[in-house]
Amino acid sequence: MSEPVSISTGIAQRYAKAIFDLAKEGKKLKAVEGDIDALDAALTDSSDFAGLISSPVVTRDEQGASVAAIAKKMKLSPIMTNTLALMAQKRRLFVLPQLTAALRAAIAEDKGEVTADVTAAKAMTKAQQDKLAKALTASIGKDVKINLAVDESLIGGLVVKVGSKMIDSSIRSKLDSLQNSMKEVG
What is the pLDDT of residue 1? Predict the structure, then answer.
């Protein structure tokens, strides 16, 4: 089931909008947000689940029964359970990772939040993350939620991505820049 990324994203966006609208109307956004976390964790932790949603060998009925059992075990909200059943019936479960990302973005936008992808050379303490979030909030004007990753090849500093903006204050990028400027001179 190899689909171009734009098609998969388009399918996921339509399902995400429907789920978001239903959840907002029924005041169930908090439950759907919990469902997203649970599904993301399941996709990350279980290669069997990831295989189930993308396997062309598994029939619609098998996918539907499996997803219904998984949703019941995970205690997902009725909105999410019904959507997963519909997606299984339509052979659209392969877009589940994009669906959770689109839903997470819609909920964050509704709350007035923005997510900053931060890559640091070493793990940041909670106090450092809070200080960075406060500085980004002052700069952007929206509440900032930090998604932290560690990459020791940065040597030191941070790479911060907020939407389409990127701030790279890593030592690796400064060394690369210095190396490029030295090549231009000589």
Answer: 45
